[in-house]
Fold each of these.
Amino acid sequence: MTGRERETRLLLTGWSLHLPGVEGFDGAPPEKAAAVLGRKGLLYKEPSTRLALCAVHRALGFEPGQRATGPIEAGTAVVACSNLGNVETVAKVTRAVEAEGGRAVSVLDAPNVSPNVVASTVALWFGFGGPNLMLCSGSTAGLAGLRMASLLLRSGRATRVVLVGAEPEDEIASILHDGPLRAGSACVILEPWREDSGHAVVDFEQGEAARTVGPGGFDVKEQWGDFYGAHGVVELALAAHLAVVEGEGRVGIGPRRPDGGPAVSVAVTDHSDEMGSP
Amino acid sequence: MSGVVVTGWSALTSAGVGVDALAKKLALAEAGQVEKGQEIGDLYEEPLPAASGHVLTSFSPREHLGRKGTSTYDRSTGLAVVCCQEALREAGVSLDDEARPRIGVVLGTSLGSFKSTSDYTRETLVQDKPYLVNPMLFPNTVMNCAAGQVAIRFGLRGVNATIAGGTLGFLNVLRYAGNAIDRGHVDVVVAGAVEEFTPHRAWATHLTGATDVVAPGEAAGMFVLAKENTPEWAGTRQRAGVLAVATAYGPGGGDAAETALAGCVSRVLAKAGADAAEVSTVYTGEVEDDDRREYGPIVRALGHSPERVMVKRLFGECDAASGAVALGVLLAEERDSGPGGLSLLTARGADGAVGAAIVRRYADGGPDRG
């Protein structure tokens, strides 16, 4: 392998799908997040924040209730993707100000009106001290997050990136989205590509894939629902699951081209065969 | 990004409010002069590390904006909103219903208002119960407060972003704004950076050792950026062209950052299709002649030694806003820019982040675009 792989590949060292009500990938709904995370510290945490924490918890391979211990990990970055996580609180606070004035607002709601609460809470909860980014860029937020993660790793800004997507399904979010949402979260943990280790890689090069996640293949939106800002991360984590756990080898992401290959050149591939490891 | 043009701008610096105050100070300053700033007087009750700094001593947002809607503004929000008003006026932007959705705001900062954040946090500790904190002041604690208030005040409904880039803040803003225009998200961006003078920032600058040579300062600089073929409502003059911006990161600082900065300079030249010989002036974040952390890599990349301007000597350490002050100085100065007339703006952060922008100034407000 040469330097080219270092530019087009990332190591995928962990992933999770936390999709309440989806068979095979079910997870605790936000109000029962304590079953995964433990009880302490969840007061006033919003549904999308809780879902994001659950996804990261599972991607790290933590036991239920287990907490991160040890020093702050300065090299670990958080990239969170969520568009409508805080809109219910924003609407609630705005209505309270309009109806009863500023004094009627609970101070404990204050952090939740800031959209970056998902990214910052994940960092505080798990002790990730690296760059902290929140992407609210619509349906493509997950893929934009992957691009950000790739830049952070390739430039040496971070040695590990926790890419997490989470979206709620409350009334306000559905109105703003102009369509039904499905609550869920997913997480992938990315590291710079190394020759001698790893199980799965994200490969940005074109290549024929055994299966495709997306229109023409397993269409997440059609099969499970619209995870909106988290969609891209859900696809990535699902592709990792199919590639490694279900032994599909290389799984493409994106709509299928007429010739059969995935249109987007992101593919998750099981790395173990290539490495000759068991 | 491809290049954008500046159709108008303004700056609030220790020289005062607006372009004229800045130009007047520049005309009076001697080459290489280091200013200690003004007496801060009774602006704050809290003790300060020094009695002087680069402050706008009698600044009052109300004087420029009126009473309505300004009562909860913190200092950096006030500076940003007033500066934006001046910049839009200077550019001659006509703010109607057609224009407003097509104008964005991109603002650089280090921490937002450090004072608002720490005062609010302090309140939660010293009040009897946490819920006695005034929720109306909460918006000031988020970093994007100033950019948000600017958009609300003038009804600018395009992209609204705050970039916390520290020393590189303003260069990041130019790059982000150029991309937003390039990709068609907006036609115009009011791009700038703001930093307030408070005891919090004064102590932070003092304790991190940044005030050895220059005093901490406050400033806001806002620039109306547009594509060359933008509708007339965006202003009809071209003051300057921001031809290209590049940023990079040299892990750990040191030699890696030097190489990264030289790389940025080469990249902006290539992107702009310019020759190194055309660069006559560079505006750096350094403060001393023998400090060549930015100038060294620039000279290496260009192959010659252009004139170096260190704006922090006159206007203090304004962190994220120093880059905006530099572009303001570039535009306001009566400088014989020589053949080619290109300038570079550079920045280098302690962590190894570096960046460069290449700017062409048009004489006398530039060609009429109308």
Amino acid sequence: MTSASLPGPLRVRPISDAEHLDFIRRRPSVSFLQTPAWAVVKSEWRGESIGWFDGDRVVGAALVLYRQLPRLKRYLAYLPEGPDIDWLGGDLARWLDPLRAHLKEQGAFGIRMGPPVVTRRWHAGTIKQAIADPVLGTLSDVPADVSDAAALAVATELTALGWKELPTEGGFSAGQPKFNFQVPLAGRTEEDVLAGMNQLWRRNIKKAAKAGVEVTTGSRDDLAEFHRVYAETAERDHFTPRPLSYFERMWDALTTEEPDRLVLYLARHEGDLVAATTMVRVGEHAWYSYGASTTAKRDVRGSNAIQWQMMRDALAAGATTYDMRGITETLDPADSHVGLIQFKVGTGGEAVEYLGEWDLPISRPLHLGFTTYMKRRG
Amino acid sequence: MSAGFELDVDTQRWRRHLDTMVEATPGIVPVIKGNGYGLGRDLLAAESTRLGLGSIAVGTYNEVPEALAAFDGDVMVLTPWRPFFDHVVLDDRVIHTMGRVADIEELAAQAPGARIILEGETSMARHGLDRHELAAAVAALGDLRVEGFAIHLPLGPAGRAGGNFTEAQSWAAALEASQVDTTTLYVSHLTPAELAALRTHRPHLDVRPRIGTSLWLGDLGALSVRATVLDAHLVARGEHIGYRQRPMPRDGTLLIISGGTSHGVGLEAPKASSGAVQRGKLLAKGGLEAAGLSLSPFTVDGKQRWFAEPPHMQASMIFLPASATAPAVGDRVDVAVRFTTATFDAVNLR
């Protein structure tokens, strides 16, 4: 997308789902939280697709979720893992000023967004070493293996434009996680990916195959079976499960948008379901989104087998990134979250740090009230 | 007999301190910069040779040629290299400090094969790379040879070395987890106990302290400064004296003593004070200064005495009240010098 003419002013206006989807299809990857289908999943928010126009050409897009303040016709405009604009091209005001104007007109008292900009990366070997070192307690303590100066400069520019980064605790904010774990797939073969894993992962994948674990993909009807295992996992790991209807709604919305946007995976051992997961893919980016496993038959390693199948399918579909999503920043072996990191680190991938989530107040009093309310809600 | 502003060194005692310290501090790199801590850089270079040390650290590139001439080993430069420096000495015995990724790229292009140290930016916030820049720094190295990693820590809570252990530990861990391919860590401002603890916690690292003041000036008893009374005149209250023809406040003796601004006498630098009491003291002193007098660094008859007028270039005029016993011409008096700003007419090894 190069143009010889001088860049004109950009305008923001709503676009149809079809226009939005058309733009996404032309991009290598966009967060699945930025697809028109995601607005359908998040039914408690009002969704709106918007586009940035340079003349009559769409050059950027976003899904905006509006959450209404109690009893007021004012909204928080939330762009999760978005917007999809040219973040590193300089002159962010050119993009963000018309965004602010549009959202203000829609009744937004504030904007929250999560620039899909990666600032730093840590390789698996580095993280493994850091976990073993008692002095290095968080990812920020550990020298990054890759640090993107241009991406880091975006933070300075956002601050100058009045945006404020949302504080996170251990890398977890109320919104999307700042630290994620990803397995790079670009230019790699199945053998490469397998060879990059640690011994335990490779052994477990082999073990599952030897035990006869079979991984298949399921249909909408299989969601109920997935949900049964998912509810069991929720009870074991002490989190509140979402209802089956949520997954059905997600299935309907995402698969309507693209037939293979959402895929359900089921791992069975001698007919018993031992693990079940969902994978979402937009272009070259595949996400492991929900996962569940039974307490029984843990030793057949259904979790490893199902992950391996998702990675292989992502690779076959042309994905360049297999995303295992959020991790906490902690590397403290005493922290219960470290087990999850260690599981992900075993894949040989990398921890990535995003720019985080940022707020721009439009109406200061309302924004302050909202932030206070959210804090109190905990 | 000379009658300048001189430093007498009790050589035996001074060397005893140096030997003890070097023996107790494995890997020590003596810092030889500026005025050579009053002793002179050449003397310190010669002493480093006597101590059998393989490397010294100088402050700036201007100090390098002299150091190379006076010392046979490696010379590391503490000030990070910059592309716009025009006194840079490219010699295989010179080790450059690098604190910016762009500088590394530049030096790698200009002087492939040069020996360097990477410096990390500590809470001093003076020079150095952020820990997340280390990978980019390594990527920019080209054919540069990394000889070590350096951190410059602030003074501790009480204004003395100490209390920096946590930061030193964190940097040592960061170095080990980084892509920087060295096991040598140069540190400054750690106490001997902190150094020992760091070595215990990081057995894979070769911790090398860079030390100036506490090495060269660690036993002040071995150093005595001699200011000589060059002349003495009886003066009466109200009598006008000196370049500025100032009236004397009382009857007394006017002493002309060797040592003036060219020796570093009368230089006022910001005081390293932090407490309210100390600030109060300075204020009180300021009050007297406002009255037109300044306290001199010369001690005569047991007390620090006042300048009769601002110090001259090579001598000072000191007022001694009639109640005090005046020294004779040719007598020596004590001077409180700040060694890092003092210049002596002679340094006498005795």
